[in-house]
Amino acid sequence: MRVLLNPLDGMNLLSQTEVSKLQKSSNSPLYALFKSCALAVLNVGNESDELYNEYSDFEINLLSRERGIKIELINPPQAAFVDGEIITGIQEHLQSVIRDILFNSSKYETTDFNDSVEVTNAIFDILRHANVILPTDLPNLVVCWGGHSIKEKEYRYTKEIGYQLGLRGLNICTGCGPGAMKGPMKGAALGHAKQRIKNGRYLGLTEPSIIAAEAPNPIVNELVILPDIEKRLEAFVRVAHAIIIFPGGAGTAEELLYLLGIMLNPKNKLQVLPIVLTGPAESIAYFEEIAEFVEATLGKEARDLLNIMPDKPAAVAQFIKDQMVNVRDFRKSVGDAYQYNWTLNIEPDFQHSFDPNHENMSQLNLNLDQPKTRLAANLRKAFSGIVAGNIKEQGVLAVKEKGPFILQGDETLMHRMDKLLMAFVEQGRMKLPGSKYEPCYKINIL
């Protein structure tokens, strides 16, 4: 089957030079990544681990035309089409893949991503190019983090939170996948519909290795693919006006540790960024495990940054709504933008890309005797590696070839990590429902 797509708005206004660059990129080593990401967005709703085996004959090409490009699909998933026409939302996601994987790769190939200021500016530029940096008079974007593998009752709870936020005119940003990333968007869409809000925003921020393994959910109406996990995390905290954390696994722990490491920086002491941990009453064990781990490793100051509000959807939404005034007042007092938090200080250790290979994972400093912000950065990297070993193609292959990643450090911290990770496993938070989890890590005590 061969399908030719005319580009939607934007892609039909490319210069010949830009078209040439896109074609060059689509024939480079980047093509494999581009192809896998394109296949993922074309196959929205299918959570199969065998996606690339099922569509081994799939190809995507960019064809030059005087007015821009055409997109050629060969043997694409039929689920992306209705009566022979591609679903509009899926085509929008497909063009986001072209924009962010190919266009940005050439645009930022000479950027010094070791320079903190350049990183922050590049992230802003990527978001602005994707038209997600929008003028606003009142902060209203709530970032929701949580696991892709959650229980049905937890999923329904995330939808209820989203619904309550939507009724209050708040918009949603998530990692754009299934589970706790889909629920708040779905709920908010209903809340917006009831309030006759026609420009509701459901912003999905992802990165190449995740989107290739985990397609964006169908509710996402603004999709941005950042270059790597570190840029994605920075994008989250710079666009956020509040952050809600639902139950999750290693990925959610990574996000939380990243956030705490930044907020513990004395330069961010005056920042106003509400953080709420919430879920149904049945999830209290999850929050207890997280709170205990945070306080035991990063101290009471870190624990005090967390507002734990289980089983209170309306109260959570009202709290977040009330906090928007404080966020606005703070941004106004320091002359910062409402759309992008420039004044948030993020140290280079949280910005530099971390390659979770066996050598780097084994050399992480996982000892309590170090500054709390540095410990948070190293713990974040450890959990990032576990996420890679669980779901990212390169990490999964590395574990299959060389065995589990080795995490080693002092006895107290290693016991804490082992206890937390085992709780995630027992609660079924490390894999998609229905699959058996084989640990991609091994804990060693130095």
TrEMBL record:
Gene Ontology MF, one: AMP nucleosidase activity
InterPro entries: LOG_fam, LOG_family_nucleotidases, PpnN, PpnN-like_sf, PpnN_C, PpnN_N
EC number in record: 3.2.2.4
Domain Pyrimidine/purine nucleotide 5'-monophosphate nucleosidase C-terminal: 324-443
One Pfam family per UniProt: PpnN_C
Reaction catalysis annotation: AMP + H2O = D-ribose 5-phosphate + adenine
Ranges where the Pyrimidine/purine nucleotide 5'-monophosphate nucleosidase N-terminal domain occurs: 5-107
Protein name: AMP nucleosidase
Organism annotation: Psychrosphaera aquimarina
Gene expressing this chain: ppnN
